[in-house]
Design a protein that fits this description.
InterPro entries: DHS-like_NAD/FAD-binding_dom, POXB-like, THDP-binding, Thiamin_PyroP_enz_cen_dom, Thiamin_PyroP_enz_TPP-bd_dom, TPP-bd_CS, TPP_enzyme_TPP-bd, TPP_POXB-like. About 40% of the residues lie in helices and about 15% in strands. It is an alpha/beta fold.
Length: about 575
């Protein structure tokens, strides 16, 4: 193309890499790139968000939902700085994201000019590839490699380009003699690394020797549900799911015991406490204290990244490769385990646990319990629903009460565990899969952080249903202060917001629930609405997200925090006592 600018080359290169969506906000530091996008809007869709943090979250989620490269764009200085939290979400959850930022004029950098932030230096920690474009003829090489690196290493790539360079024409006379035109390729080679027969035999011998095998499935096991079920059947093994692996196996599977950790289930925790063999499939679940004690169980781990083998638990066999392919190779080496007692004990535990969830999800107390909202919502979700949830007590209710079935997808900010991700995640889902039901299950604290993205939902007429659990509190922090430290709750109460009125101000239909008897009916009405809708569920702020098994130390800390003057301590004590009695009964 004649008279191509550096920005033209940048956008054309993204098109060559099959990029169809870019999330961001325009700004004077990226005007050249925005113009290149304007002239190619039939090929690349630019989604304008209201905060750059949301753009990075959406790019991360787009990668999670689709398996493709997520892309976000921000201007120089503050715009690029705002991306960082969402980019760290991508880094810690190992998602391929390309961040493109502007810089100020190339010959004014580092001279205290306006918005003089050297973003390539700022991004050193977050990015697996990070470069500053040095001129128009540098763009193709740099952007090609950025896309390739993000996908190959499943991380953040960053390209920053001075604003004046963006509009400069690509001219042969400016090209260095060694920079031969078009010497790079947009072909992505997918790793074919698989374990050897000897490695498979070693892993199989270890698993076959066990009597009580547990399987821990993580994000890397998504897409391997058939293999997980076949392995679980062969070994008589329960499948425990890390939060990011919630969609790796349906919660209706006879082998699934649900989640692990603070927001996990009792049968999952008991399976890990009593197993003698552990198979970790595509998981880097970070809470080491929930694994079997070192030496208790012999372990095998599969992962796409050899760096993560043995990272959380000492393993005796490591199988590197795609989870589904590795398990397909491993399965013929495994013998059928006649003794089903370990699996049957876990299944009995699941039955009891589900009875407890049913009891808690059908209570008619007022104030309404948050479990009631999740329980009723679960019954109304389609088998193709994409669920985005946030960080906080909201994560517990989602993890325990929203069941994965059919072709459902589920995600959140896993290792970063940042608030505010849920709505941008849902936006990305609705952009990528406009025909599917998309639910944003979020707390009032998380929603208010990026409340402006309600406008994005309206602008693009996104079919997102936002269920906001309103307890007027930073609930997770409140309970951590009390249960883990024994401190009275402090500065966790939130100023109440009328979210229905706020939603209508954005042009979104709003619904309010505070009566458990009307919960299902209201949710049904909201889910049937066309386009975005918001449901404000007013719940009991004193309902604790109790761990699956409360330790003596946690109980002592909670008692100490109440004795030392936690506000509303009598209501909290009564709520916990009521929950405990119900568990015993």
């Amino acid at each position: 193309m004649a008279n191509q600018t550096a920005a033209d080359v940048l956008v054309d290169t993204l098109i060559d890499w099959n990029v169809e969506v870019i999330f961001g906000i325009p700004g004077d530091g990226i005007n050249g790139i925005i113009e290149a996008l304007r002239t190619r809007q039939e090929k690349v869709r630019f989604i304008q968000v209201r905060h750059e943090e949301a753009a990075a979250f959406a790019a991360c989620a787009y990668a999670k939902w689709t398996g493709r490269l997520g892309v976000c764009l921000a201007t120089s200085g503050p715009g690029g700085i705002h991306l960082l939290n969402g980019l760290y979400d991508a880094k810690l959850d190992h998602q391929p994201v390309l961040a493109i930022t502007g810089l100020q004029f190339h010959d004014l950098l580092h001279t205290f000019t306006q918005q003089d932030v050297e973003l390539d230096k700022l991004y050193i920690d977050v990015a697996v590839y990070n470069t500053r474009v040095m001129g128009p003829n540098h763009v193709e090489n740099a952007v090609e490699l950025a896309c390739r690196t993000a996908l190959a290493y499943r991380g953040v790539a960053h390209v920053t380009i001075p604003v004046d360079v963006q509009s400069q024409p690509v001219e042969a006379k400016r090209r260095s003699e060694r920079n031969i035109p078009h010497h790079v390729s947009d072909v992505m080679a997918v790793s074919a690394q698989l374990p050897s027969n000897a490695q498979l035999a070693r892993a199989a011998a270890l698993l076959n020797a066990g009597k009580r095998t547990a399987i821990l499935a993580g994000q890397g096991a998504i897409g391997a549900a058939d293999q997980l079920a076949a392995l679980a059947e062969r070994l008589g093994a329960p499948v425990i799911k890390a939060l990011l692996g919630k969609a790796s196996l349906g919660d209706d599977s006879p082998y699934s015991t649900g989640g692990i950790g603070l927001l996990g289930t009792k049968p999952s925790q008991e399976a890990l406490e009593t197993c003698d063999t552990l198979l970790i499939v595509g998981s880097c679940f970070p809470y080491i204290e929930y694994y079997p004690k070192p030496g208790q169980a012999r372990a095998v781990q599969t992962d796409l990244d050899p760096q993560r083998i043995g990272l959380r638990y000492p393993v005796e066999a490591g199988l590197v490769g795609d989870s589904a392919k590795v398990l397909d190779l491993l399965l013929p080496h495994l013998t059928y385990r006649d003794d089903r007692s370990f699996l049957e004990a876990a299944q009995a535990g699941v039955k009891e646990w589900r009875e407890l969830l049913e009891e808690r999800g059908t209570r008619d107390d007022k104030p309404m319990k948050p479990q009631v909202v999740a329980h009723e919502l679960n019954k109304l979700l389609r088998d193709d629903t994409i669920i985005a949830t946030d960080s906080g007590t909201i994560t517990t209710w989602a993890a325990r009460h929203l069941d994965i079935r059919g072709d459902m997808k589920f995600s959140c900010s896993g290792n970063l565990a940042t608030m505010a991700c849920s709505l941008p995640y849902a936006i990305a889902a609705a952009i990528a899969f406009p025909e599917r039901q998309v639910v944003c299950f979020i707390g009032d604290g998380g929603l208010t952080m990026l409340l402006g993205e309600l406008a994005t939902c309206v602008k693009y007429r996104l079919n997102i249903k936002i269920v906001v659990i309103k307890n007027n509190s930073l609930g997770q922090i409140k309970w951590e202060q009390m249960v883990f430290l024994g401190n009275p709750e402090y500065v966790c109460d939130l100023q109440p917001i009328d979210f229905v009125t706020v939603a209508r101000g954005f042009g979104i239909e709003g619904y309010m629930i505070d009566d458990p008897k009307k919960c299902r009916e209201t949710l049904q009405k909201a889910l049937a609405a066309t386009g975005p809708a918001l449901i404000e569920a007013v719940v009991d702020p004193h309902e604790p997200p109790m761990p699956p098994k409360v330790t003596i130390r946690q109980a002592a800390h909670l008692a100490e925090s109440l004795a030392r003057g936690t506000p509303a301590r009598r209501k909290i004590a009564l709520t916990i006592a009521s929950d405990t009695v119900r568990e015993i009964v």
